Amino acid sequence: MLGAFRIVREAIPGARLTVIGEPLGITEPGVDNPGFVASPEEMERLFLSTDLVVAPARCDPYPGFLIEALSYGVPCITSAVDGMPDIVEHGKCGLVLENCEPPVLAQAILSLLKEPQRLSAMSDQARRRVRERFTWPLIAKKMSETLLREGASWERRA
Question: Is CATH 3.40.50.2000 what the domain over 2-157 is classified as, yes or no?
Fold first, then answer.
């Protein structure tokens, strides 16, 4: 991520990066690393003050923070691993990348930051995606359907 951010910062000198999670002792210009953020109010402030969430993870089975970001209308750029492509619909509410090497990631970030209308449309799509796929009533319905289907499957096997 830092390699990609360096490229982004060359193109947009005022760009800022906030790295949430493990405190890493990063001392690069434009980079904040507050560590873990436990306060819901602080997370809300961070989401409302950002243009993109970037998650180029190599392994993250189902990162809930992406759903939270989308609910605030923050488009996401993710890697195409684990559950991330299930959360972020490529080209609609963000970008899902097969290759997250720094130049590729930087290009994806810059492509969105330099197209405010596209970024705004993705923001609207992000909120819509959460309303249509990730509300608790919808999740409960899916879980119930799955449990009933699997229960019937087990009964046929017995």
Answer: yes
